[in-house]
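Crash report, auto-generated. Payload:
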Amino acid sequence: MASGLTFRQAPHLTQYDQMVDGNPGLPKADMTPDEKISESTTDESGSAAAKTPSSSENGASKSPAPKARKKRKATKTSSKSSGKGSAAKRTTKKSAPADEASKKATASPAPAEKGTDSAEEQALSSWDRYQLASHKDRPRTSDYLKAVFTEFMEISGDRGFRDDPAVICGMARIDARPVVVIGQEMGKEARERHLRNYGMMHPEGYRKAMRVMNLASRFKMPVVIMIDTKGAYPGTGAEERGQAEAIARNIRDMYKLKVPVVVTVIGAGASGGALGIGLGDRVLMMENSWYNVISPEGCAAILWNDPAMAPRAAEALRLTAEEVFKLGVIDEIVSEPNGGAHLDSEATFESFREAINRNLKELDKLSTQQLLLARAEKYRKMGVFRTQSSDQQT
Amino acid sequence: MAARDEFMGWFKRPTPQYINITVPTEEKADRIPKDLWHRCRGCGAITLRKDFIEQMSVCPNCQRHERMRGWDRIRSLVDENSFEEMSSDLVADDPLEFEDKRKYTDYIEASRRKTGLNDSLIMGRGEMSGIPVSMAVMDFAFMGGSMGSVLGEKVTRAMELAIEENIPCITITSTGGARMQEGILSLMQMAKTSILCAMMEEKGVPFISLLTDPSTAGVMASFASLGDLIIAEPGAYIGFAGRRVIEQTIKQPLPPNFQTSEFQREHGFVDMVVPRHKMRSTIIKSIRMMQGREPWLEADDDHLIVEPVPVKA
Ligand SMILES: [Zn+2]
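Recovered output after restart:
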């Protein structure tokens, strides 16, 4: 592995291949979440993972955004003052969901239930969540398409080169309303994964997605996007056909769409491969999804020269929904059942449907001009830096 | 050659600070005194460093275009003394409290000391043949020219300046991509800058993206690929995924010319490959045409028709 110090996407492929082949050498990929939780954390509440989630859970998914937003500042300052040690960091981070959950508990009709959830939730490390996002039974784009949307009709091809099966595009209805849906599909079985290229898109995939989004814009259909990829495909053909150009153009042109765009990271969200269909008026993350500039494996290979440092990189990158939310990059976290979406996919779909509908309804109130202005302002603010003068003061 | 002579004229003027900082770090192993001599990494030819810099860091023997520092680049393009730096006070913060083998904050401090820059990009307003232009120029010496929040903000400001004053925008990339130490925030800089490209397009502001060695990953997958004109220097490494990543994926070695400027031009993603000594005149001629101005008095009349190369069927 020493020769691959600067690779980025290759580790994912290896991991997938090994997952598919059932290679025992790779840790945890095929474990049930219960095993994962009890093994990787010392928190006793991890054993509560298999508990069936109550129906009250769906109702609670409405509120995390504003609540978490309220406590955002407080958490930030506390984490700043908590010293630099990683142990200290971990403690601070864990206190956050507990805080949030306790707030949830007071608002929720079933406080006791919620309390238990929170204890269990805080036991999940970044790495746990990262692995949950790749769980073989986790709902993928086609599952959401079947469960949440009706009348889905797939639209193929970029009208330039070919159809890219790593991304599914089409028209559908959500609660009778026509929308355009776009989602990366990782696939489930070995053969499907292979055919779908593990959800890693080629340039023609980005071009297909943009073509269908432009169709949505012309016919006033909102766009619902599901992100689930470990990156854009790093292959020869992809380079020859302009992977960088395709992603860049999508980001630019998605800004110009005259209809609301709601993006949800449903599993993995890595790098430009995700952002290439990821610019939206609202960006949501499923509770156990992750979103970052690089995968932990890729980051570990580059910065630590050691792919085995991936769990540490996962921690350092701040890739969980909660951490990305705190950085002001996403608008809302969509709750999942205890232990992960795969344990109760119906509840997951219901949370998702509710969140999409609510966000679309809110965005309906804006004129096209207001929509584009808000979109520009949303991204204009992204980033954290300081000025040298303030530097000298401190 | 007229353009080149013109350069040489003002390159000979004393610019002490600039000579100091033009020491490629890759040469640590070399026995030859670093300050005095330059040894070409392509052909091994040894040139007096002072001469090498006067040749705009192009090897006189094999024409290899060595990386240029940000300020060298600016001086090689703008009218003399016309460049006014802006937003130089922006400094990277550490919102993730990122730490790998070293702390991100330490890494930034070390890079600031090493390069004399506050981050990996210099932005400001300059003039080219008397025409005001907005410029954003990367310096690979600062953390590999990586794109974090500061770089994204400065590129955005350069583009906003171009829109506000209705002047051309020129970005010059030399980067390994997004800055991992800023995690998701560095990814968002791709969105932030690409949106400004849409706005420039809407306002009819000429946008020239100059790609130099290397131009890859997150920067290529955002504003650098969105220029009205995309110009590359010869032999630069340009692409999305890194060479080794691709080799690991396809499990075979890539041909040596894969992801070069010439490769990208042949595949339709670079408009022109222009040698360094023609860069200033090419950009000036372009922006004067795009803005409907009179011809530049010093313009050469080289017709640029590219020799066709065999195409893969
Ligand atoms: Zn040479």
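Post-recovery validation: Residues B 40, 42-43, 45, 59, 61-62, 64 surround zinc ion (CB under 6 Å).
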